[in-house]
Protein 1
Amino acid sequence: RGLGAKDSEPKNILSGFSTSKVLSDSAREKNIFVHGKLADQEAVIILEKTPIREDTLAELLSGSTLKLELKNDIYSTYRLQAPSHLNEIKTTVVCPATEKHVKKYQRQESSLVEETGEDYQSITLPYIQKQSFSVQWVFNILEKKAEADRIVYEDPDPKVGFVLLPDFKWDQKQVDDLYLIAIVHPREIKSLRDLTSEHLPLLQNIFVKGKEAILQRYNLPASKLRVYLHYQPSYYHLHVHFTKLGYEAPGCGVERAHLLADVIQNIQSDSQYYKTRTLYFPLRADDGLLSKFKEAGRL
Amino acid sequence: RGLGAKDSEPKNILSGFSTSKVLSDSAREKNIFVHGKLADQEAVIILEKTPIREDTLAELLSGSTLKLELKNDIYSTYRLQAPSHLNEIKTTVVCPATEKHVKKYQRQESSLVEETGEDYQSITLPYIQKQSFSVQWVFNILEKKAEADRIVYEDPDPKVGFVLLPDFKWDQKQVDDLYLIAIVHPREIKSLRDLTSEHLPLLQNIFVKGKEAILQRYNLPASKLRVYLHYQPSYYHLHVHFTKLGYEAPGCGVERAHLLADVIQNIQSDSQYYKTRTLYFPLRADDGLLSKFKEAGRL
C-alpha cells in the first residue's frame, strides 16, 4: 500500500494538544473541559464518555476483559476493559477559541438574579447590544451553509418557520437523551423578553410541527417530551429546546427553563406578560451581565 | 507455561450472561442496569463508565484514534477511540439476585400529563380525595410530636405560619446540596391548585422568613437559593422546597417545579391563575392518577 496507507490513516490532531488548565469536569456526567493549545492556537476541548447502548451490550459483555476488584456475598465488582470501538468518547474541539469560550466552560458559582421589565430595558438590553455576540453560526444553519445534512425538519416560512436539528450535546445514538433545537427563521427575536401575542403563530407552529417531526423521525410521542426556552439564553436568536422527559438535560431546571406551553398560555392571557414580568435566572460569577446588575445595585 | 497460563488468563464470566431486560439506564450518567441470567442464576449487572481523569489526559489524547464527525466554523466534533485500559467501565454483579433487587433497579417511564382546570376538578381532585393519602406524619411535625429537634425555624401563626426543617434527602454535612422544606400551619391547602390571592400573605411570609432563616443558620444568601413548589406534590399538604442553586436536586426540573416568586407574581395579577391554568407534570407509568387520565381519554 505504501504512501496510500499513510494517507488513509486517520491523523490524531489532538496528540499535539498541550493542556493549560482543566476548566471543569463532572464525575457524574463523565466529562471534562480543557483549555490548552493546538498547533499554537488557543483551543478548548471537551471530552464526554458516551452512553452505554443496549444494542451493543451483548458484544460489549462478551468481547471485553474483566478484572475482579472485590467480592462480598452476592455482590462483586469488576473493571471492564472494552473494545475501543464499543466505548467511544465524544470529543468536541473549539479552535481557535476566544477568551469568551474559555470563560464559558470555566466552572463558576452562580447567583440568582431578579430582573424586572425595567431592569431588562436599562441593564440587560444595553449589555446584549453592546456585546453584539456573533450568531453567524446560526445564520450558517438557516442558510444551509453548514450542518445542512443534520436538519431533521424545516418549515421555511420566513415568519413562522424554523429549522429543527440535533443539539451538539446529543450523539443521536439513542433517544434516551434526545436533544433537539428549533431555530426560528425570523432574525429579530432575541429572547423570551421579546415575545408578544404577535409571535403566537410562530410559537404554536414550532410546538405542533416540532413534536410531529420528532414523532415521525424518532417515534417519540409528545407526552415524552420537555419543550422549553431558556432565559437567559446562551445566544440571542430565538430557539426552543426539545429534550426527552426523564433525561435531566443541563439547563432544564426551573430557574432557567420556561415550558413553551406555559409561555403560549401566558402570552395568550397577557400579550405583555414577558415584557412586564420579573424574571429570575442564574448568572455565573464571571458573567459580565452580573457585574452590570451589581453596579446598578440590583444584587 | 502450559496449564498455568490458562489459569492466569482472566476468565470473562460475563460472556455467558444472557439479558432478559434493561431495567434502567442513564444517558447522562452513562450507566445501565440489566436483569438476566448468569450460569442459570438470576443476576443484575450494573455497568457505569468511569470519570475522565486529569492525570491520564495526556496519554488519552495522544494514544487514541480520532474519527471526524462534523466541522462548522471553529467547532468540530470527533469520536475518540481510546486504549481500553484508559477507558474502563465499572461493573457490578449481583448474583444470585432476588425479585427485590430487580424491582429496586427497575425504572418507571414517565409521561407528561396536561391538566386543565376542569381536569383537576373532574379527575385529579376526586382521585386525591378517594386515596385520602395520610399526612399524619406532617401533622406530627406541626404538633412537635415528631422531628421537633430537627426544626430550623418556626413561625407558629396558624394563618401564615410554617415549620422549616431539613429534607430527609439532605445529610446536612455540607451546604452544597442544601435541601429544606417549609410546611405550612394551615391544613386545608392541598397544592398549588388551591392557591389564590387570599394566600399571598402566607406565601410572602414563607419566602421572606424562610430565606432569612437559611441566611442565619447556614450563611447562605437568597441569591444562592432555588425556592419552589412541586405540582403534583408528593403529599397534599402545602409545602415549599428550598434548595441550593447549582445543586441539581431531584424534582427541580421545569416540568415539575414552580418558582415561589413566579407563583406570587402570577396570583398577584390573577387571583384565579392556578385554578384556571392548564398545568403540565410527569406521572410515572405505575401512578394511579395516570390511569385516571387515560380512562378519561386525556392521554
Note: Residues 200-218 of chain B form the longest helix (19 residues).
Protein 2
Amino acid sequence: MNPVAGAPLTVNGRSYPRPGRPVVVVCIDGSEDAYHERAIADGLMPFTEAMLARGADLRGECTMPSFTNPNNLSIATGVPPAVHGICGNYFFDPATGEEVMMNAPELLRAPTVFAAFSQAGAKVAVITAKDKLRRLLGSGLAEGGICFSAEKADQLSIAENGIEKVLESTGFELPSVYSAELSELVMAAGCDVLERDRPDLMYLSLTDYIQHKHAPGSPVANRFYAMLDRYFARIDALGAILVVTADHGMNAKSDAAGDAQVVFLQDWFDERTGPGASRVILPITDPYTVHHGALGSYATVHLPAGADRSALLSELAGVDGVDTVLTREEASERFELPADRIGDLVVIAERNTALGTTPARHDISGFTEPLRSHGGLTEQRVPVLVNRGVELPAGHRLRNFDAYWIGCHLAAEKPLTK
Amino acid sequence: MNPVAGAPLTVNGRSYPRPGRPVVVVCIDGSEDAYHERAIADGLMPFTEAMLARGADLRGECTMPSFTNPNNLSIATGVPPAVHGICGNYFFDPATGEEVMMNAPELLRAPTVFAAFSQAGAKVAVITAKDKLRRLLGSGLAEGGICFSAEKADQLSIAENGIEKVLESTGFELPSVYSAELSELVMAAGCDVLERDRPDLMYLSLTDYIQHKHAPGSPVANRFYAMLDRYFARIDALGAILVVTADHGMNAKSDAAGDAQVVFLQDWFDERTGPGASRVILPITDPYTVHHGALGSYATVHLPAGADRSALLSELAGVDGVDTVLTREEASERFELPADRIGDLVVIAERNTALGTTPARHDISGFTEPLRSHGGLTEQRVPVLVNRGVELPAGHRLRNFDAYWIGCHLAAEKPLTK
C-alpha cells in the first residue's frame, strides 16, 4: 500500500486515513486498568511509564456484554455488536431451539478494518492467543494477509495463515492454552512480523488467563505486565503507532472470604416459569472454561410464551447481587446489541457477583484462587494507552473500538475528526 | 560471616579463602559449550559476550560419568565421585540385589563446601531446578541456610528450606518439571535471594530439559540462553563473583536421519552369560525420563560369578558404537569413581550412540525431536565462564568442580594456588 497516496478508507461508516507507518493495536484481554497502574507503580513497566508521560493515558468503554468476542470484533470493525452481530461466544436461536457458537465468519455482519485495508492493498497481520477468534478476525483478508493463533502455532501454513514456522522464528515451544506464555508468544511473533514485514495494520490479541486468576498488583500479574512492557518498548522502537487497550475489565466475583458469589438464574426462572421453560444463556461459555467456570456477570434469558416479562423483570431486579435487568428492546438500544441474538431479558450482575444457571453446571471446586470474571457494566472501563499524544474531538465518547481510528489518524498525522 | 577475618576453610583437602563478596556458581545442566557460543554469535547474549571479553572464557572437564548427580555433587564438594560417593542416579548393590537411588544424604561420603561454610557462619543459598538434587546438596547446611527446588517451590517453609513464598516474590506460577521455566524460576529466585540476603555462597543448578530436545543454535535453545544472559547480567550488577559452568555436555545420539542409535547391552550380555545373569545398570535412569528415555552413553555391568570378564570386555569393545570398556579397577582409577558402587565393567559409547538395556524398556516413540543425551567422554568438556580474569596455576587441569575454589579466591582477591 502506498502510505501517502489514496483517499481515506471508509469502513462501516467511519473514515480511516491510510497510515504512513505501522499501526499496532494490542488488546490485553481482561486488562482492568489497575493491572498496568499497579505494575507501573511497582516500577515494573518502565517503558510504559515513560510512554504515558509523553503519549496518551486514556480510559474508554468497552462494548457490552464485556466479553472477549464482542469486543474483539468491535475493535476489528470499529462498530458495536448491533452492527457486527457478535454479541457473545454463542447465542440461542429460538426458531431452531439450537445454541449457535459465534466463531464462524458467516455470523459476522460487517467487514473488519483488516479486510477493508488488505483488499485495498495494505499489509495486515492479525495474531490471537486462542484459536476461537482467529476465523472471525481473519474474515475477508486478502491473499497474503497474516492471521494465526498462538494456540495453533505448530500448524501454520502460508496458504492458510500467510506465515509459517513461527515457533522456529520466536524460539518458543508450543505453550499451553492456559498459560501466560500463550500471550507472550503473540507479542514475540508480532514483534518479529513487525520487524520483518512492516505491516500497515497489526492486531495482537492476548488471553486473560492471568487476569482471571491473579489480581492487579499480585506478583504473577505484575510479572505478566513487566513482560508486556518489554514488547511494547520493541514495538515503539520499530517506529509503529502503538495503541494498547482491552476487551474488558476484570473483577473478583467473590465475597470478602474469597467464596464465589453467584446468582443461579436457571433455578430462579424454573421456580417461576416451570422447569426448563425459560432458557438462560451465559454467553461467556466457550470451550475454554477452566479459568472462569463459565461464570460471568451477564446473562440473557428467553422466556416461554405467555410469561409475564415485566413482572419477572421487576422481581429479578430486586434479587441480591443483580444490578440491572433490561428488556430485549432496552438492552439492544442501550448497549447497541443485535436484538435477534439476545433473549427477552438481559441480566447484569453487580461488581462482585456472577450469574450462573444451576450449581451443577459450574464446577469451580478445583479453583485455587477466588473467582475473577467479567461481563457486566463494572468491567466496562478499559485503558486506551497510546505512544503519541491524542486530541479527541470535543464530547467524543471514547471506546476501545476507536483504536484503529485513533491509530490510523496518528500514523497519517491527521487530526481526529468525527 | 566476617568476610575478611578468619583463615581459609579447608574442605575435602582443598583450601577456600573466605569470600569478600558473594560467589554465585550457576550450573547450566547439559550446557555443551556450543550452546552459549552459538547464542553469542547470534547476538542473543550481549552481557555474556562482554563478560567473556573482560573475564575468563575457559573450558574444563566434568567428572565421569557425565551425568547430573555426580557432577553436581562434585561441584558442591570440590572433589570427584571417588571421594563423595555419588556416581550416578542410582547404583546396584550386589550384596542385597537391590537398586539404590543415590538421592539420600546418607549416601554422600564427603561434606559439601556449602555445609562447611554455613557451619562456619557463612550465609549459603542452594537452589535447584528438580527436587532430586535438593536433599543431597542441602546435606549438612546449618540452620538458616537456604535450600529448595523450583519443582517444589509451592511447598516451602522456613523450617525446611530457610525461605518461603518464592513463587510470590518472583511472580511465577509453579512451572512444569519439563519446562524451560523451571530453570528460569531458579535464576529469578536466585537473583532475588542475592539482592535481599547477599549470601556468601550461592549455587543455582538448572535442568537440561531444553538441551535434551534442542541443539545449539536452534531457536528454542537460543531463546533459553538469551533468558540466562539477562540473569547473569543481574548477578554481575549485584556485585557477585559469577562462575558459570555445566554438569555435562550434550550430543545427538542419533544417525544422520535422526533415528536413535542405541546399543542394547542387557540383550548383548543375556546372549553371552544367560538371561538376566548379568545386570546392566544405566545410572542416568531417574524418575524424570520423559526427555531422554533413560538412554545415556554410560553403563556399568555386574557379571555373574565365573563369567570371563576379559573376554567379554574385548568382545564388547569391538561392538559398533561402543567407545571404551574398562574393568572396575581401571574405571575407578581413571575416572576417580567409588569402586564399590560400580559394576565389574564400565561401558562408554561413542559420541552419537547411547546405551540401553533392551528395547522394550526405552520408550522414545513419543519423541518429536531426535534423541540427545550424555554420559560419555564426548560430553566431558564443559564451559567455565567467569566475570573476572582467572590465572590458573601452571599445569592445572581445570574441572567444573573447581568452580567454588576459583570463585572464593577471586572473591577474596587471592591468587589461585594449588
Note: Chain B has two domains: 9-250+380-411, 262-373.
Protein 3
Amino acid sequence: MDCALLEELQAVLPGRVSTSSSDLDRYSTDEGPVVSPASPEAVVRARSVADVQNLLRWATRHTVPVVSRGAGSGLSGGAHATPGSVILSLEDMNRIVAVNPDDETAVVEPGVINADLNQAVAEHGLMYAPDPASHRWSTIGGNVATNAGGLRCAKYGVTRDSVLALEVVLADGTLVSTGHAPFKGVAGYDLTSLMTGSEGTLGVIVGITVRLRYLPRSVHTLAAFFGDFPKAAAGVLAIGRARVQPAILELLDGRTLEALDRAHGSNLRRRGGSLLLTQTDGYGAATEAEMITAALTEAGAVVSEENSAEAEHLVELRRDSRGASAEDLYRVGEDVAVPKSQLVSYVTALGAMAEKHGVQLKVIAHAGDGNLHPTFWVERSQGDLGRSRLEEALDESVRSALELGGTITGEHGVGQHKRRWLAWEQSEEVLDLQSGIKRLFDPLGILNPGKAIC
Amino acid sequence: MDCALLEELQAVLPGRVSTSSSDLDRYSTDEGPVVSPASPEAVVRARSVADVQNLLRWATRHTVPVVSRGAGSGLSGGAHATPGSVILSLEDMNRIVAVNPDDETAVVEPGVINADLNQAVAEHGLMYAPDPASHRWSTIGGNVATNAGGLRCAKYGVTRDSVLALEVVLADGTLVSTGHAPFKGVAGYDLTSLMTGSEGTLGVIVGITVRLRYLPRSVHTLAAFFGDFPKAAAGVLAIGRARVQPAILELLDGRTLEALDRAHGSNLRRRGGSLLLTQTDGYGAATEAEMITAALTEAGAVVSEENSAEAEHLVELRRDSRGASAEDLYRVGEDVAVPKSQLVSYVTALGAMAEKHGVQLKVIAHAGDGNLHPTFWVERSQGDLGRSRLEEALDESVRSALELGGTITGEHGVGQHKRRWLAWEQSEEVLDLQSGIKRLFDPLGILNPGKAIC
C-alpha cells in the first residue's frame, strides 16, 4: 500500500493503526482453513463508532478492502485477510452499554464476549441464549456476523432469534439503525436479519440490541450411551417422537469420546460407543428428563442422570471436543445440517465415506437441529495425495448432505472456505439476487470481498 | 385496461380470470382502512405455481401492477387494489403438500388456512405456533407476507421464527427457493427473512416450509382481574420479574370487557376493571401457573384458574375482541409495540390522549411482547371534524410509542395505512436501502406498488 495512503489512515485514526509484523501476522487469519494466504496492509483496532466511520470513509475514498473481525474465532475463514486489505478489529469496542431487566434486553458493542454478557445479566435472572462452543472467547458481534448457533439453540434458537436491532456502519461511513427495541416489529424490510449472518460483507455491526431469556432455575442433564453412532442418532428421533424439547441435545461419536478421554483423562469411551448428551431446563425439566430417559432406554441406551458438577464437566467437554489444531495433521471440520429424519442415514453414510476415501473421521452434532460437525483428517506425512483424498471426502460429505435435503453450513457461515459449495446448494438466480444486494450495500466492493457469497 | 391485454391474460390463464363486478368489488380491499379506494382490473385465482408464473410474465410484459392476497384478512391495507392493478388471489393454492413428523416440519401452499394446518399436524403431536387472531380464516401465505404475530408468540415467536424455507415467484416469473429444510442454515444472505413481512412487494410466495412445535400436553389458563388498566399492565412486568414465560399473555381493558359482555353475554367487566389473561403450557405449566398466580396476587389482582372449557372460551373471546366493523362509527385500530418496561406509561398516556382529542378508546394487547392494539373511534355523525380528531389521536398514539422506543407496527405490517408513519420511525438512509432492495427485486415496480415501504 502506498505510504501516503497509510499516513492518511494514521492521521484520521491516530493511535488505532498498527503495521507491526506481529499484528499483521496475528490478524491475518481466523480459525478457518486458509484457502489463499494473505497478509493485511494494516490493522485498525477501533474504539468507537466514529473510528469505524472514519476508517470506512477513508476506505471508500481509496477503494481499500476492509475485513472486520471480533475475536477471530470463526471457522470458515470469514475474517481471513485478503490481498491489500485492512483488518478492522472490533475487540476493543467491548462495552455492555445497557442491561434492561424489565425489557429483558441488553445493548452491547460488538466486541463484548458472549460469556461476559451472560455473566452480566445472570444477576437479573436472565441469559443470552446463543452459546457457540467458543462462547468464552467469541464476541457477540462475530456471533451476529455469522448468525452463530450453539448448544442451547435446540430450544432457544440461533443468534438471529435473539437479535432485535442493530447499529451498522455502511460502506461509505453512514451509520444506520435497523430493527426495533420491542420484541416485535414489522416496519419495512427485515434488514436486521439481512445483516445477521452476512459476515461483514454488507456493513460493519457496531451496536447490537439482544433479547434475553429467563435463566432456568432447574436443569437436568442426561448422559445416554449407545452401542454405536447410528443407534445414538436414532435416539435423537426417539426424543423427538416423545415430543419433548431439550435445551441441549448433543451427539458425540466413539472417536470423539476417545479423543476426549485422551485429552482429559475421562472414561467416556468405556461407557459406550456413542454419547447422546441431553439437557432439559425450566419448570418442566425433571418431568422432561424422565420422559427422555424412558424414550432413550427404550431405544437401547444406558441412561444416567448426571449430578450438576459432572453435567457441567460433560457439557464443557463437548464444547471443547473440536480439539486443538495438530501440526502433524491435515484436518478440516464441516458444518452441514440435514432434516432430522435423515440423521441416521447421514451418519451411516459418513462412516462409509471415510472408509472409501481412506481418511480418518470423528463426528459431533448439535443433533436437535440436525447440524453435524464431521471432522476429517489425514496424516500430514501423506502429502498431496492424502490432502486430495481429504478434499474428496469433504466434497462427498457436503454433496451427500445436500442430497438428503440439507445445507452446506448450519451455523459457521460460508466465509472463504465454503464458497466452493455454495452453488451446489443455491440456484444461479438466488446467487444473483445476493450479488445484487451486495452491490446495493457496497457498490465499491470494499467490505470483506471474496467471502460469504459467490 | 386495454381489451387486448385482458384477452391475452385470459388466454395465458384460461378459467382463472374474473372481471365480474362482484369479484372486482369483493377483492378490492382487505380488512384495513381504505386510504385511496380503487377497483382492480381483474382478479386471477391461481391454482398452481405455473399460474402465478404466467401471470407475472404477462404483468412484466405489460408493466401491470399485481396485488397478491390470501384471505384478505390483513389489517393495514396491504392487499388493497391500486389503480390499474390485477389482484392475484392465492386462496385456491391450499394444499398441505407434506407433513414430516420426524423432521417436525410441514410444506404448504400459500392458501392453506392457519387453523387447517394446525388441525392436520395435531395428530402427530405437533402444532404450527403462530396464531394471529384471524387463525381460523387467514392463510399461511398471508401470515408470512405480513410476518404475522398472534397470541402464542409470547413464548413461540412470530411467523418468521417458524419459517424455514420459501418458494417465491419473482416479478419476471422466475421461481426461486430460499432458506433451508433443516432447522438451521446460514448459506448466503437471509432471503427468507427478507421475504417474510415484505407484503408481496418483492415476490409472490408460492410455497412455505414451516417448523412445527410440540403440542403441549398440559395447559393452564389464568384470568387475573385488576382494578384498572395501568395496574394490569404493571402485572405484565410482575410476571416478567418472576422470570416465568407464559405461552399467552393478553391484556384487555375495561372498555373491551364491556364490549365483549355486550356481544357475548359474558360478565367480565363485573369481575374487574381490566383482565390479564395468561396461559402456560408444557411440562412446567402447573408450576408456572402457581408462580404467576403468586406474582399477580401480590400485584393486586384477583386471580382464578379457569377450567379448560371456560379457558378456551376466554381465549376465543380475546381473539374476537377486535369486534365487527360498525357502520355508524369511524374506527381505526392500531398496532404499535413498546419495550415492556414502557407498558404502564404507554397505556396511561393512551387514556389521556383519547380524552384530549375527544375520541373513544379501547385497548387490547399482546402484552408479553409489548404489542398493543388500541382502537380509537368517533361516531360517524361527528363528520369530518370527528374524523380529523380521530386522525390526530392516531398520530399522537404512534408518536408517543416511538418516543418510548417503540415501533409503528408490531405485527400487522405497514400496508397502505401505516406508510404515513414509516419515516417517523426509520431514517432516510434506511428507507433508501429498502427502496434499493425493492428496485433490485422488482425493477418495473409491478409488485404491490405503494405498500409496505416509502
Note: Chain A has a mean pLDDT of 96.
Protein 4
Amino acid sequence: MKAMKLDAYDGKAPFEAFDKPDAEPGPNEVAIIVEASSVNPVDLKIRQGAAPVGPDAPRVLGCDVAGEIAAVGEAVKGFRKGEAVYGCAGGVKGRDGAYSQRMVCDARLVAHKPESLSCREAAALPLVAITAWEALVDRAKVQPGERVLVHGGAGGVGHIGVQLARAMGAIVHTTVSSKEKAAIAYDLGAERAINYREKSVNDYIDEETGGEGYDVVFDTIGGPHLEKSLQAVKVNGRIVTTVGGGASPDLGPLHMKNARLDVVLMLIPMLYDQDLDLHGRILTRLARMIESGSIKPLIDERRFGLEDVGAAHEYLDSGDAIGKIVIDIGENADARPFPPLR
Amino acid sequence: MKAMKLDAYDGKAPFEAFDKPDAEPGPNEVAIIVEASSVNPVDLKIRQGAAPVGPDAPRVLGCDVAGEIAAVGEAVKGFRKGEAVYGCAGGVKGRDGAYSQRMVCDARLVAHKPESLSCREAAALPLVAITAWEALVDRAKVQPGERVLVHGGAGGVGHIGVQLARAMGAIVHTTVSSKEKAAIAYDLGAERAINYREKSVNDYIDEETGGEGYDVVFDTIGGPHLEKSLQAVKVNGRIVTTVGGGASPDLGPLHMKNARLDVVLMLIPMLYDQDLDLHGRILTRLARMIESGSIKPLIDERRFGLEDVGAAHEYLDSGDAIGKIVIDIGENADARPFPPLR
C-alpha cells in the first residue's frame, strides 16, 4: 500500500511516496485501512527534529487516523473486521504512522468512530480532543458554573476546549486574534470571545470577572499566553497548558495565588507504552458526546490528499488555517455514516 | 498586656516592647492568652518588607499561636473560655499578631490544642503543618505506596511533610544537608535521607527509584531545589512547592513528563478573608494524628522569651536552627496537658 515517508528529521527532507509492505497485526493490534488523517503541530516538530520522538525509518508520520478495521489481532476484544474506528494511534517512537493507506496500531488506542461523523471529520479529532479532555476533565476537573478561559478558542485544541468546558457546565471565555475567529468561538459556545491584540489581561479580568480572575485557564498556544495565564487565573485557581516546553515563566503570580500549573502531553501513553487504554476510553466517551451534539470538529476548507501531506504541513505552519487540516487518504473519507456494521 | 512591635518593615527597625490595650473579641472572634508562638520564614520576609502582607501599625507580627481562650465572641460555637487552642491565626494584613501576651483572632482559624502537647510544642506546628497538609493531602493527594521525595526533611515544613506522607502510607525519601539532619529524618520516618551536597539528582533517581523518578516531589526549600524537583519527578507525577516566588524554572521537563506543579501559600485564607474554616478543620484532624502518635513537632533547643523575638529572628536567619524556633510567652508554655478542661 502507498505511504509517505521522510528520509530525515531535518525539516528539509520532503515527504516521498513509497510502497509500504502490508504488516499483519500482532496479538493486541489492529490493521486499519486508513480513510483520513490530520495534521498537528507535533508532526511539524517531529519533522523538524525539534521533538525527538519520531518513528524510526521508514519514518511514516501521522498521529490521527480514522478508517476501517482490516484485520484484528488474536487477543483483541471489542473490535471486528469492517468496523470504523478513530484514534491518535501512531506516528511517534516505534509506532506506525497514519500518512499511509494502511497502518497497524495497538487496539487500546482506538475507539469506534462516531456514526454521525465521516472519517475525515473523525480524523480531525483524536489528538486535540484527548489533549483537551486530559486538560479539562482529568487535570482541571472543571466544575459546573466555573469560569473557564481558553486561549486560542478557534485553534485545534482550543475549539474542542471551548466545547468541552461548555458541555461540562462552565461559563467559557476565549481569546482569539481576529473577528472571524471570534465568530467561530461564539458558534462553538463561548460566552465571550476576547481579541487579545486589542485588550490587556488586566482589562478583561476587570471587565469580565470583576477583577477576580478565572477559575481555570487553559492555554493552548504557549509563549506570552502562558505568562498571561498566570495573570488571568484567580486565587486558588488552576492553569493547564499544552505548551510548557521552552517556557520559563516567573512563578511569583502562581505563588501569591496559591495556584496550580498542569502541563499536558497527550503522547505519554504512546511514548512510554503505558496506560494505552486511556486513549480508547476517552475517545469512547467523546464519541457519545459527539453523537449527542455537544462537540463537533472544526475543519479547514482546503482539501489535501495523501501525496499532498507536505503542502498540508506548510499550510499548518503558515498559521492561516481555521480549524484542523485533514488529509483525505481513502475513497470513503467523506462517507457518513461509515460503515454501519454494528 | 505586653506585646512586641516594629516601627517599619525595613529589616532594620528593632522589635520593641509596648503596652498593648486589651481588645475584646468581635462576634466571630476569640481572645487568647498567648502561651507560645514560633518563628517562620514569612515573618522574616514581612519584617524585611519582602512580603507586602504585614499587619498595619502597631505592626505586631507572629502567625503561630498556642494558648488559653480568655473570651469568646457571641457568634462563636465550639470554644469556651479556659480551653487551650492552637492556630496560625494572625500577624498578617489586618490581623493581630502572636508576639503578644494576648491576641484576638477569628475563631475559625484555630482548633483545640492536642492534649499530649505543651503549648510550646503546639505553637511550633500550625503554619508548617497546614502548609504540608495542603501540599500533600489537598494538592498532591498522596496515595499509599507512592514514592514521595521531600526536599528539606529536617526543616520546618519538611519535618511535618516527612511524617505526614509516611502516615498517608507513602514511601518517603528526603534530601538533607548534613548527617545530623539525616539522623533526624530517619527518626521522623524517612526510608532514605539523601545528602544533596554529595549526590546528584540523576544519581539518586537511578539508585533509589531505578531511574523512574518520584510520584510526588515536595519542595520546601525552593531555589535550585525547585529545578531539581522537575528532574526528580516521574512521568505523570506531581510537584508541590512552597517557594515559587522569584523562581523561573524551565518548564520543559514538566512538559515532557506530563506533570503538575502546585504552589502552596497557606496564608490565602487570612489574606483574602475566605475559607477561614479550612485552617480550623485541618488543625482538628492534625490534632487527632498527633494524639495517635503519627506526627510530632521538631523544636530547636534554644529558648526565647517574648522580648527575645528579635534574637529568634536572627537565629532563624542564620540557618543554624534544627526544627522550629519557639517563643515562650506565657508562664504555662511548658505545661502538658494544658488545661484539661473538656
Note: Chain A touches chain B through 29 residues (CB under 8 Å).
